[in-house]
Specification:
The chain is α+β, with helices and mostly antiparallel strands. The protein has a single domain, classed as Beta Barrel (Hypothetical Protein Pfu-838710-001). It contains 6 helices and 10 strands; from the N terminus they run E-H-H-E-H-E-E-E-E-H-E-E-E-H-E-H. A hairpin with a 2-residue loop joins strand 3 and strand 4.
Length: 206
């Protein structure tokens, strides 16, 4: 298991091109940015047991490869999120129950993987930079995500910046965020893409 520590920030869509081309990335980036498309399918039971337990299970498709990810209950304060995360490679968009058995949360022990169904998707382009921050010292992945969440014919836009700690001092996330808002209208974002998908499902059922 690894612990995911990241800071999420919302960004107005009309500022995304300016952000991607800002010299900030040339000054602090360790390498040239890369952009790729990520398609994600989220799974849950019909009565949303995983969501009730604050657990997210997805399969991500990227560059012809598939990755199964389980994220457990965490905490999110002013956009800073910490939670457990496990990942396994797959050969298709079919859940693999075997590795999940060892890390499946206790409150979901009565939920069989076979009862899980795809409920919604997120599709977005991710532009990614790696920063070597000096004070405090840390290596940070910064990702600009542009796309949409889709559930039962309804969609919601995605336009956000994620700062994920790769190694070093997590205070670097806040230090980077303090510098970026002087250029852009970035705001803390405590709602994950998965939570927005479940919000769309709830809207559809009203």
């Amino acid at each position: 298991m690894s612990q995911e520590t990241e800071l999420k920030l919302s960004l107005p869509e009309n500022q995304k091109e300016s952000l991607k081309n800002h010299p900030f990335w040339q000054e602090h980036g360790a390498q040239l940015p890369e952009t790729r498309h990520l398609g994600n399918t989220y799974f849950d039971t019909a009565d949303l047991r995983l969501n009730q337990a604050r657990v997210a299970l997805r399969i991500r498709a990227v560059n012809g490869q598939f990755i199964q990810t389980l994220k457990t209950r965490g905490e999110s304060i002013n956009g800073l999120t910490r939670r457990g995360e496990w990942e396994w490679p797959l050969t298709s968009l079919v859940l693999d129950a075997a590795p999940l058995a060892a890390v499946w949360p206790d409150e979901l022990k009565d939920v069989a993987v076979e009862s899980l169904r795809p409920l919604f998707t997120t599709d977005f382009d991710r532009t990614r930079w790696i920063l070597h921050w000096q004070n405090p010292s840390a290596r940070v992945e910064v990702a600009l995500d542009e796309g949409r969440v889709s559930a039962r014919g309804r969609t919601r836009p995605i336009c956000e910046l994620e700062l994920e700690l790769l190694d070093g001092d997590e205070r670097a996330l806040a230090a980077i965020a303090r510098e970026l808002p002087s250029f852009f209208d970035l705001q803390p974002l405590d709602t994950s893409k998965a939570e927005r998908g479940f919000e769309l499902l709830a809207t559809d059922s009203d």
